[in-house]
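Record type: monomer structure entry
Structure origin: computed from sequence
Chain ID: A
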Amino acid sequence: MEVRIEVAGQEATLPVSVAEMEDQCLLGLNYLLSMECELNFCSMKLEVRGKSVPVTAARHTRSGGEVRAL
């Protein structure tokens, strides 16, 4: 499956796979590298080709699942 996303005004179409995972990890590393991103955990900002966007931490859903978003 492919998904079209836009981050900091930059559009991309990416392949997406859904998997049940036990470990926490940063998904989309290939995308972050290809878009020349800089992720700053101290300021909770993601810079995409010079444009900065806020980073959101994980939150738990009512069903007990976890949602992570940048």
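Annotation 1: Residues 25-70 form one domain.
Annotation 2: The beta strands are 2-7, 10-15, 37-40, 45-48, 51-54, 56-60, 66-69.
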